Amino acid sequence: MGKKHRGSQNMAVIICLLVFLAADIVLATKLARQDGAGKNPPKEKEDIREETVENKKKNGITSSRGISVDSEDNRVKELLAGMSLEQKVAQMFMITPEALTGFTRVTAAGEVTKQCFMRYPVGGVIYMAGNLKEPKQTREMLANMEDYSMEFLGFPIFLGVDEEGGTVARIAKNKAFGVKDVGDMSEIGASFDCDRAYQAGTTVGAYLADLGFNLDFAPVADVWSNKKNTVVKYRSFGSDAELVRDMVTAQIEGLYGQGILSAVKHFPGHGSTTADSHKGAAVVEKTLKELRECDLIPFQGAVEAGVPFVMVGHLSLPQVVGDDVPAILSGEIITGILREELQFNGIVITDALDMGAVTDYYSSAQAAVMAVEAGADMLLMPEDFVAAYEGVLDAVRRGELTVERIDQSVQRILKVKVGMMLQE
Prior knowledge:
Shape: globular
Number of domains: 2
Number of helices: 18
CATH superfamily of the largest domain: Glycoside hydrolase, family 3, N-terminal domain
Distance between the termini: 76 Å
Strand content: 5-15%
Strand order of the largest sheet: 11-9-7-6-3-2-1-12
CATH class of the largest domain: Alpha Beta
Low-confidence stretches: 1-58, 60-66
Oligomer: single chain
Radius of gyration: 27 Å
Structural class: alpha/beta
CATH topology of the largest domain: TIM Barrel
Largest sheet: 8 strands, parallel
Helix content: 40-55%
């Protein structure tokens, strides 16, 4: 064989090797693409937090186990179909353990509580400082309530507390719990550091979750625009609406990261009032335009961040609705502004219905029915729970409220509760 021929043969071999190598590269690339289809690259912490917000845009806790929205909706429909009218109406109440049992002070959840819950399977229980003695007692009490709900209904109960930090802290103010008080939100807001709000939410969320809570009536989304207002002076992040919005959404994320649901308050904004609605009517003299330019901004931010609860306050807005009816009883405020304008699809809960702004003018039954008619999903602490519960039932039986209207609220409640189960 001649040198020229051998050279040609070697060149052919090299070309073949290059062709095979190129083919391998193409094949490997295709396989890599196929293997990576639907997968995302590792995310930085900030990317994860942004995705978490996006996943909660529908105002409910979404599944982290790949469960489809359709599957969650089907589960909600199944649960709803298996409930009696009485059970549905009971789910629309969040009350104290004293209101559930009839006892003066409750620090445990034993057989009496279980029997009372089976009669009135309420959607949630809110605990005050007097119910919370120390960690072991609190954990046992809350664990029992959770067990009763899962055993009797097949889904969780909301176990809530007012734990804002600083001025309002049922647990951090009790030395028996040995937890850090994150301080007033006004101080955090003054730092202009949203990470402090996030860390406050993380801190509070961690010790609440450790005790067995799943809902915190925080953060306060009120913009402190009236310097004479002492009601939310220390509880608000400040007087700059956009700063308050950013602080509120950061704290929601901190709480959610620990598995704690947030209920922002007091819609549509308590910051410009001077009166305390615990004692009587509190009037907001702003127009709707003025609310949009200030007070509604933090609530809009919370809605966009996927907050599952918005608490509506006992605030009269005559310049908006034309009369002195409190916001919790106003369809224009709840349905018109919160639902339709801000596009909130989560749970609307009233502020406590045992406050003077309500009890001075309405019976427990009247207030409960009016709140549901206005668009509220959950009724917090009516002065007389049984009267309020029976009032709503009677309104349905009379045709004043429809079963469809009750189902709307219970579906929202169940959606969040089903989401909680899927997150576990």
